[in-house]
Amino acid sequence: MEYFPAPLEKLVEQFAKLPGIGGKSAQRLAFYVLGLSQSEAQEFAQAILDAKQNVTCCPICQNLTAGGVCSICASQKRDASIVCVVADPRDVIAIERAREFNGRYHVLHGVISPMNHIGPDDLQIKSLLDRVGQGEIKEVIMATNPDTEGEATAMYIARLLRPFGVKVTRLAYGIPVGGHLEFADDATLMRALEGRREI
After folding, report:
1. What share of the chain is helix, strand, coil (3-state, %, to 5)?
2. pLDDT digits 0-9 by tens, 50-107
3. Angle at 133 between CA 56 and CA 136, to 5 degrees
4. How far apart are CA 136 and CA 81, in angstroms?
5. Cβ(117)–Cβ(96) under 8 Å?
6. Burial letters 55-73, b for 16+ CB under 10 A, else e
7. What percentage of the chain exceeds 70 in pLDDT?
8. Are 170 and 142 contacting, i.e. CB atoms less than 8 angstroms apart?
9. Which H, E and C letters describe 74-133, residue by residue?
């Protein structure tokens, strides 16, 4: 038995396909959209279409841009000799929020994950090797997540970069600021001890 008219049911189904949106949230969003005025609904739909048509990948770093080279790669103020490799465009935003990194980025658009049938050829690894091969890059910072797939991807890329003679580093991890040692797991404590530095 259908509770909603078919067009509304279809709208709920589309919202439910979004990550982190369950059935109730999908219904709430669909009813919100129904409550929009005609012009607001068209503006909402047009924003989706515009983003889909106009957002592309930067030809240099593979980050998202509105066409052409992204603002980070185009900036003369950024250090082109240091490249931070991340799995996802959202990771660029996270690192930029810290306002500590002044180099450039390379976005892989995923990590190696055999369980999800994602191999090295599915990622932007070749374009990274091409960039490093040009000789301007002196250090590559591997900033993939510290999980199994992120670690495997970092190790795989580090092995590929070895012949280029560039410095390959990994983001440090350990005890978070405000955390307590008693709640840290063994792996986190081990990483914190390995990554210790002089004060």
Report:
1. 50, 15, 35
2. 999 999 999 999 999 998 999 999 999 999 999 999 999 999 999 999 889 999 999 9
3. 85
4. 6
5. no
6. eebbebbbbbbeeeebebb
7. 98
8. yes
9. HCCCCEEEEEEEECCHHHHHHHHHHCCCCEEEEECCCCCEHHHCECHHHCCHHHHHHHHH
